[in-house]
Amino acid sequence: MPIYTETKDGKTTYMVVATTQINGKQHYKKRRNISSMAQAKRIEVDLRLMLRDLKSNPIRFTWNEWTKVCLERMRIEFKKSTLITYQGNLGKWVSPHIGHLYLNEITSSMVHDVIFNKVQNVGMECRRTVLKQTKRIFTMAIDEGLLTKNPAKPIIVKVPESEQLVFNRTEIDTLLYQAKLRDHPFYNHWVMALLTGMRTGELHALMWTDIDFENRVISVTKSWSKVDRTGPTKSSKNRYIPISTELEMFLKNLKAQQLNYNGKVLEPLKDWLTGRQAEMLRNFCREIAITEIKFHDLRATFITQMLIRGVALAKVMKIVGHANIKTTMRYLRLVAQDTQGATESLGITLPKDFNNDNVVNLFQR
Q1: Are residues 226 and 305 in the same domain?
Q2: pLDDT tens for residues 23-45?
Q3: What would you measure as the largest C-alpha separation in the chain, in angstroms?
Q4: Which one of 63, 204, 247, 323 counts the least CB within 10 Å of its CB?
Q5: Are 335 and 304 contacting, i.e. CB atoms less than 8 angstroms apart?
């Protein structure tokens, strides 16, 4: 029963894998993210005993029974809002159709039928979410040695890429000028989103204690939502955002106003707390005749503006907290929206007044 060493972000953890043959099929149990070798050895013994018990008395679960076990385990690991989404989707779309079946009786064609036929009146994005959650339940069964393969694995839901909108530089200036001129209640929130790229939940949770003026960085360590209240960030990892000169001036001016929001940097506006921030921004954009974007698109604008100015992809990824650089790379195509006309500054002009009879066709063979 091997113990493997894994290293990520400079941190070493251990993984224990145990295997055995039950009724001619290979079963295995796995535990990851073990902090020490001593703990790994103890878990190795536990897994060996679990496999022995499973071999002598195989356990069978129906989909409903196993889902209940999984959701109970997820309470420790997942946010409350994520758990509610799992319960709602699986309870509504999956359990009514395959809930009574034992896990090893469920086939890929059954799962395919659920995702593409039983899940109705919703978009492809919702179908993909249900499939992802279904796959996770089966994966947890494999980790426990209850299954040898995931019947949902071969199934793919293709979702058309949604249009991502961003401001160009002129529109950024227009938004902030008009919002300041009209004393819009969301002016400070839009400034912070455009100058930091923080998500709305992270801005909700931002405290003055998170801002280090001396070292010119903002510590992003938490996020807020109506369901979960204050908790970890989306990736559950902390990050640091450099404070630009413009942002420093803005923050110091904001702090000098001595507004008391229980230590929070931004005012918890009613329309923000009730989730109407996207609607408020779209309405204002329509009013001042610029691209109608959502609040989250301010984050995309921040990303594209950094890329336009030559900030390295890896550095952008680190600042905005993307878990995968592929996510950051998606914004590269948006950069073109703010570079149209840039080549006009080359200053190259072609000679004029050629006689057409003397023009050589370079593409003629």
Answers
A1: yes
A2: 666 777 788 888 898 988 888 88
A3: 93
A4: 323
A5: yes
